[in-house]
Design goal:
It is found in: Cell inner membrane. This protein is mostly helical. The protein contains 17 helices and two strands.
């Protein structure tokens, strides 16, 4: 009898790349709904336009590379990149900003290295950092949350108009700095006083931000339940961020870096923990490596947020650890089946 000689990895069950990507897209919906409720329809417009441009750039790159376009578009990986980038960008970002971001993510960060599975850096986060460095004004113009004094939320038609440049000058009336930036720039008020004087803070973090992070936490928990990824990287990242904020929290002085709850439910923390850090291509491979990888990202997030120049540091931290992932893999390789570790020699 002849046996098939098939190399690992061996897939169990009907789960395919496309089905995994579809589940990831579905898991982003609770966080997206919270962002829409508190910040208007700008995020949905971002995601829709990013999806169209990402698919177009993916098809163009596949045609240049003489690869089957339909086969690769059906794996939904370009859509996942578009969703993550569109969520991370300020709501109703300029259409050209989104196009530059998706073009950089798909053409430079993904296809230039050979397509999905070969990219050394997370495409969405690499594009986000490129945009933040190149266009800091547009990247820091965030909508004011629902119920604040800055004005009304953008409806679907208004969000489309602002995205494509019609009447965009009026958008300044309904924007403000993010809670992470407000706390970072504060050097005079106690945290409790800052909380009571600003309309953009909620119960434990920024108004709207805490619910958006809760939504991404819910989606991430669902993905862990479906075994799309393991718990090691996201939980170690959140644990490291919690420990750092606990250790350096001074009770709320004017120089405070924020409480653990503030850091966990502000900015892109939960989006990063469950949708960025868990990227199987750019993260560590072994479970022990994922624990180290996630913990170092959490450590970097706190360091950059509190002592660095950028309030939300998820993208920078992830890219720095993308560099280090092969190094971590080298020293955390599991024991080869059938071989001793060497300790008995």
């Amino acid at each position: 009898m002849g046996f098939l000689k098939v190399s690992s990895p061996h897939a169990h069950g009907p789960m395919s790349t496309a089905s995994v990507m579809r589940l990831v897209l579905m898991a982003t919906l609770p966080g997206m709904l919270a962002l829409t409720w508190f910040f208007g329809f700008g995020t949905i417009v971002n995601v829709l336009w990013a999806s169209i441009t990402a698919l177009a750039f993916e098809a163009l790159a596949l045609r240049w590379r003489k690869r089957p376009i339909g086969f690769y578009l059906n794996d939904y990986s370009a859509l996942v990149t578009a969703f993550l980038l569109g969520i991370a960008l300020p709501p109703a970002a300029p259409f050209w900003l989104i196009m530059i971001g998706t073009g950089f993510a798909i053409l430079i960060c993904k296809q230039l290295y050979g397509g999905m599975g070969y990219n050394p850096f997370n495409p969405a986060m690499a594009a986000y950092v490129m945009l933040l460095i190149s266009f800091p004004v547009e990247m820091t113009t965030w909508m004011a949350p629902k119920g604040s004094f800055a004005g009304d939320l953008l409806g679907p038609i208004e969000a489309l108009r602002y995205c494509f440049g019609f009447g965009r000058e009026a958008i300044d009336a309904i924007t403000m700095a993010t809670p992470l930036d407000v706390l970072k720039q504060n050097n005079a008020l106690l945290v409790d006083d800052l909380w009571s004087q600003s309309a953009q803070f909620g119960q434990i973090a920024g108004k709207g931000w805490e619910w958006a992070n809760a939504g991404f936490l819910l989606g991430g928990a669902y993905l862990i339940y479906r075994r799309i990824f393991t718990w090691h990287a996201p939980l170690s990242m959140l644990a490291a961020l919690t420990l750092m904020s606990l250790f350096f929290y001074d009770g709320g002085s004017s120089a405070s870096g924020g409480s653990p709850f503030f850091h966990l439910f502000s900015g892109a923390t939960m989006l990063g923990a469950f949708f960025i850090v868990t990227d199987p291509v750019t993260s560590a491979v072994s479970n022990r490596g994922r624990l180290i990888y996630g913990a170092l990202i959490g450590l970097l997030i706190y360091i950059i947020r509190v002592w660095g120049n950028y309030p939300d540091a998820v993208a920078f931290s992830v890219l720095l650890m993308n560099f280090a992932a092969p190094f971590i893999d080298h020293f955390t390789q599991p024991r080869t089946y059938g071989h001793n570790t060497g300790a008995e020699k």
